[in-house]
Amino acid sequence: MSELNPISGKTLDLTEENIDKLKELFPEVLTDGQIDFEKLRLILGDEINDKLERYSFTWNGKNDAIKLAQQPSTGTLKPNKENSKNWDTTENLYIEGDNLEVLKLLQKPYAGKVKVIYIDPPYNTGNDFVYKDNYKDNIENYFEQTGQIDIEGKRLSTNTESNGRFHTEWLNLMYPRLLLAKNLLADDGVIFISIDDNEQVNLRRICDEIFGEQNFTAQFIWTKTSTPPSLSNKTRDTVEYVVCYEKSKNSDKFFGSYLDNKDTPILKNTNTIKTLKFPKDSIYFNFIEEGTIHAKDYNKAKVNNDITIKNHRNINDVEITARFTWTQSKLDEEYEKGCYFLTKTENFSMRVQKKDSDAYKTPNNHLNKELNKKVDVLTNEEAVKELDSLGLANTFSYPKPKSLIKYLINMKTNNSKDGIVLDFFAGSSTTAHATMELNAEDGGKRNFIMVQLPEPLSEKDFAYKDGFRNLSEISQERIRRTGDKIVENLSIIEGELDTGFKAFELDTSNIQKWNVDSDNLEESLFSMENNFVEGRSHSDIVYEVLLKLGLDLNTPFEESTVDGTTVYDVAFGNVYIVLGSTINQEVANHIADKQKEYENENPSVVFNDNGFVSDNEKLNSIEILKNNGFNEEQLMSI
Hints:
Low-confidence stretches: 148-156, 523-527
Number of helices: 18
Helix content: 25-40%
Largest sheet: 10 strands, mixed
CATH topology of the largest domain: Rossmann fold
Shape: globular
CATH superfamily of the largest domain: Vaccinia Virus protein VP39
CATH class of the largest domain: Alpha Beta
Strand content: 15-25%
Oligomer: single chain
Mean pLDDT: 87
Number of strands: 29
Distance between the termini: 17 Å
Number of domains: 4
Structural class: alpha/beta
């Protein structure tokens, strides 16, 4: 063998994958390697509905929307370390680009790995930005659309009710993106989608079709404002909705709020007075969210030191002297099990809150602070204040409050306190804010992936005057400021909480042959004399290879140089990426020696195919690797 196996420059082909699944389920329907659909019909029997009159939901362009989701992408995600925060340590991602193409690029590395998706898509009110997908070249279209502003500074791609395809345009926007999003959800994952009355009915219909009507979980009603404007002669709108579907119906409970365990008081009138030490974060103060409680005698207890409260919790150790029924060892034991101690009033009568499956309520489907005293879900007015407090006033219209998204994420992740949270309509990155704050409060290890189109700002926008040029810049800046503020307010030690993000940008492939333009074939072939696009770095190429091989963007790798050739050791010897123009046998020997150290099963090597010094060096390198346990199929090229 003198040739290497070329890796594919395309993302996961969903059509091909679906066909493979059919072949696996029904091998008997294969005829000469093709699916015999008549035989498949016979096997499925009465489950096939071929009647002309049947229940269905369709619109102009639906078939094209399905095909668009299945059409692979040849794009890539370029790392942008300059815009990132804590690049070397963070597990969070911020991706700038058209979310349709980004979702395609995430299919291989993140399929079945996302625990929670929250999105706040365009509501199709007539003024919001509805992206026009291009069925031929969506990446080129993305670059055109994100620079498209008229002389008055108005976005051209809005969808008004005068458009004869008003609902159609919105459905064609949402359908392919939700199809791709479903693949990313874990088997026990959930998706939450904010919506209002404009498209609520249509959203439910397409979600029933994509996720399955049987996987519908709830439609939450959220009170979005306490002071609705009088915009209608009929009613004042005070609510919006959050539609929730599970990937697959399961018995997992959603967390609402902790129950009061009235049978397990820790403090009551006994004959024995004790001083107990309560660790930080162990007491939940129902009557105060933030402030300082000074040491003094209360009705049933004496607090021996001042207590600093953040988000209802004590951030310092607390010593209390009272007639306790528990001993210090009992308190420590129960605290280690995960319980905490609730005090509802200033008299410090305390009760135990156990954190187990039977100790919390399922959530009410009406998210309203007044109706649910324990649910701190606030309104849009609070969301505006949150941006104001970060120095980002007037940068976003109608942002969601972090309390809403925190509550939704916590519904699914309260027990595990981990998992990936994805928002591919990131907006101002409220979801990132909510994820970091939730981790700070409960010690969780959730990670976020934000995806946002860099919608350009006009010179009339307030944010433009502050130096921002698109929404993505504001969104990233919110994450930076939010992380710093959380660390400062909660006195968190640097490094204990992940407040950073790796920034990536959607772009055309780094590999020349994967960018072949059929309309300019001669020019494209000429450009392939150099294997890589001019101006692209080795780091750009490495991350593209990770995506195409199905490795996530946080996969670790180390760089070394062998005879002028750069070798990337990826995932501790599971993959080697070899770049440069002086590749020889010494490089192969270096990789073979590494393999002896790691002893990994079936490692892969990806070479820059144009980088070998000679055909003879290429042939000898391949033979060296084969003789050292590398399989031919895993010796690849770009």
